[in-house]
Amino acid sequence: MKYAVVIETGETSYGAYVPDLPGCVAVAETVDEVRTLIQEAIAFHLESLAEDGMLIPQPRTLCEYLEPLSA
Prior knowledge:
This protein is an alpha+beta fold. 30% of the residues lie in helices and 17% in strands. The protein is built from one helix and three strands. A three-stranded antiparallel beta sheet has the order 1-2-3, with helices on one face. The mean pLDDT is 96.
């Protein structure tokens, strides 16, 4: 399964979160590092849900980059 990940740029770091997995977040000093950490966080999050007998949420979030409409 592939989950959408949002990576945001902060003043001194990068943050990442997974909209379909509330609470699944990561913070790092570089984009590459935050990508790796969020992948690990996703795996850990899914493993924890499974161990607790909870349903694994299916990916639902769609991501697109759009140009603004001309006025």
